[in-house]
Specification:
This protein has 249 residues and is α+β, with helices and mostly antiparallel strands. It has 3 domains: 108 residues, no CATH class; 64 residues, no CATH class; 59 residues, Ribbon (Chaperone, DNAj Protein, Chain A). The protein has 3 helices and 11 strands, in the order αβαββββββββββα. A 5-stranded antiparallel sheet has the order 2-9-1-11-10. Strand 5 and strand 6 form a beta hairpin. The chain is elongated, with a radius of gyration of 39 Å.
Length: 249
């Protein structure tokens, strides 16, 4: 006979749980004759370790004068900055090595001469003219005028082009930045029956809605450690699940 002291909340919890389990008996609440409060503690420690390694980055800059470093990678605290603020606090300018701080380098297309081989006649000064009757003959190259060379378009006949490394400023910027890696771990310790909440095993902080069925005894800053007391409803679900498995077997 069903015990009159069974809490209606237990009935609701059992019915809700049974709907999630394939093969659970119908009207399973009638099978419950007594409920005992059997609380157990679960200590859950979630740890998130963030590591930042400082390194030097470089790129083009508009500054045209060298300046000394303002911060060093060995002394800076990367956790005191964001990537943007660390760059603003540490950026300085150095002379560009590829162009030797001149801002320009020799044009590769013309080898610094300011003239390039005519592409129409390939440097011969003559081009082939074809006639409608199928005949052809060599004539003066209309592009270079028999010179075989033309004004270099890459450098504008100057023989020099802007340095790609510094984009013509003659200097490069260097600054400090950091690479961040995050390691996450979860440790569980049980005092009594083992819990059946799979979210406890997941390597992440628990959400408030996941703690509604529990009484939180201790909660440290940043949810590093959470000690939970499992309600008898959850433990009852564990026992019923074992019962159903035995009946199947």
């Amino acid at each position: 006979m069903r015990h009159e002291g069974v809490d209606k909340r237990i009935d609701t919890a059992i019915s809700d749980w049974a709907r999630t389990v394939f093969g659970a008996p119908r009207q399973i609440v009638k099978l419950v004759t007594n409920v005992e409060n059997l609380d157990a503690k679960v200590e859950r420690v979630y740890v998130e370790i963030t590591q930042r390694s400082v390194k030097t980055a470089s790129g083009s800059t508009r500054t045209r004068q060298a300046s000394p470093p303002r911060l060093t990678a060995n002394t800076v605290d990367p956790f005191a900055y964001t990537p943007a603020s660390l760059r603003a606090a540490s950026e300085y300018a150095i002379a560009c090595m590829p162009c030797r701080a001149e801002g320009h380098v020799r044009c590769d297309n013309c080898s610094g001469t300011g003239t390039a081989t005519c592409r129409t006649c390939r440097g011969t000064g003559k081009e082939t003219k074809h006639f409608k009757n199928g005949n052809s003959r060599l004539i003066k190259c209309k592009t270079c005028g028999t010179e075989g060379t033309v004004r270099c378009l890459d450098c504008g006949a100057d023989g020099r082009v802007a340095c790609r490394s510094c984009e013509g400023s003659g200097h490069r910027g260097e600054w400090l930045t950091f690479e961040e890696t995050v390691t996450r771990r979860v440790r569980l310790r049980h005092d009594g029956p083992k819990h059946s909440n799979p979210s406890f095993e997941e390597v992440r902080p628990l959400e408030e809605r996941e703690l509604e069925a529990f009484e939180v005894e201790a909660l440290s800053i940043g949810q590093l450690a959470v000690v939970l007391v499992l309600s008898s409803i959850v433990l009852l679900a564990v026992e019923l699940e074992k019962l159903i498995r035995r009946r199947r077997s």
